[in-house]
Design goal:
single chain, mainly beta, 1 helix, 19% strand
Amino acid sequence: IPLYTLHEITTGKTPAKITQFIGTVGITSKDVFGIHINNNSLVPAFQSNSIILIDPNLEPIESDYVLCIL
Protein backbone atom coordinates (compact mmCIF):
# COMPACT_ATOMS: atom_id res chain seq x y z
CA ILE A 1 0.00 0.00 0.00
CA PRO A 2 1.22 3.55 -0.55
CA LEU A 3 2.80 5.28 2.43
CA TYR A 4 2.59 9.03 3.03
CA THR A 5 3.78 11.31 5.83
CA LEU A 6 1.31 13.12 8.07
CA HIS A 7 2.59 16.42 6.62
CA GLU A 8 1.83 15.30 3.06
CA ILE A 9 -1.70 14.27 4.01
CA THR A 10 -2.57 17.38 6.05
CA THR A 11 -1.20 19.85 3.49
CA GLY A 12 -2.64 18.01 0.50
CA LYS A 13 0.81 17.92 -1.07
CA THR A 14 1.09 14.22 -1.79
CA PRO A 15 3.77 13.35 -4.31
CA ALA A 16 2.68 12.83 -7.91
CA LYS A 17 4.63 9.57 -7.93
CA ILE A 18 4.43 7.39 -4.83
CA THR A 19 7.96 6.48 -3.80
CA GLN A 20 7.35 4.36 -0.71
CA PHE A 21 5.16 1.31 -0.23
CA ILE A 22 4.64 -1.12 2.65
CA GLY A 23 3.53 -4.73 2.40
CA THR A 24 0.46 -5.99 4.22
CA VAL A 25 -1.37 -9.29 4.50
CA GLY A 26 -5.13 -9.63 4.29
CA ILE A 27 -5.95 -6.08 3.22
CA THR A 28 -7.93 -6.20 0.00
CA SER A 29 -9.32 -2.68 -0.42
CA LYS A 30 -7.69 -0.83 -3.32
CA ASP A 31 -8.08 2.53 -1.51
CA VAL A 32 -6.10 1.68 1.66
CA PHE A 33 -3.07 3.84 2.37
CA GLY A 34 -0.61 4.29 5.22
CA ILE A 35 0.43 7.40 7.10
CA HIS A 36 3.84 7.53 8.76
CA ILE A 37 3.61 9.53 11.97
CA ASN A 38 7.03 11.15 12.28
CA ASN A 39 6.42 13.46 15.23
CA ASN A 40 4.67 13.51 18.62
CA SER A 41 1.62 15.53 17.54
CA LEU A 42 -0.74 12.58 18.08
CA VAL A 43 0.67 11.25 21.36
CA PRO A 44 -0.62 9.38 23.38
CA ALA A 45 -2.86 7.73 20.76
CA PHE A 46 -0.04 7.24 18.23
CA GLN A 47 3.66 7.38 19.01
CA SER A 48 6.30 8.90 16.75
CA ASN A 49 7.44 6.47 14.00
CA SER A 50 4.06 4.70 13.98
CA ILE A 51 2.37 3.72 10.73
CA ILE A 52 -1.39 4.12 10.63
CA LEU A 53 -3.42 2.25 8.02
CA ILE A 54 -6.43 4.11 6.62
CA ASP A 55 -9.26 2.42 4.72
CA PRO A 56 -11.69 5.12 3.56
CA ASN A 57 -14.20 2.45 2.54
CA LEU A 58 -14.81 1.19 6.09
CA GLU A 59 -17.67 2.63 8.10
CA PRO A 60 -16.31 3.82 11.48
CA ILE A 61 -17.77 2.35 14.63
CA GLU A 62 -17.72 3.64 18.20
CA SER A 63 -14.17 4.09 19.60
CA ASP A 64 -12.53 3.97 16.13
CA TYR A 65 -10.01 6.63 15.21
CA VAL A 66 -10.92 8.54 12.05
CA LEU A 67 -8.86 10.78 9.80
CA CYS A 68 -10.36 14.25 9.48
CA ILE A 69 -8.59 17.00 7.56
CA LEU A 70 -10.01 20.48 7.96
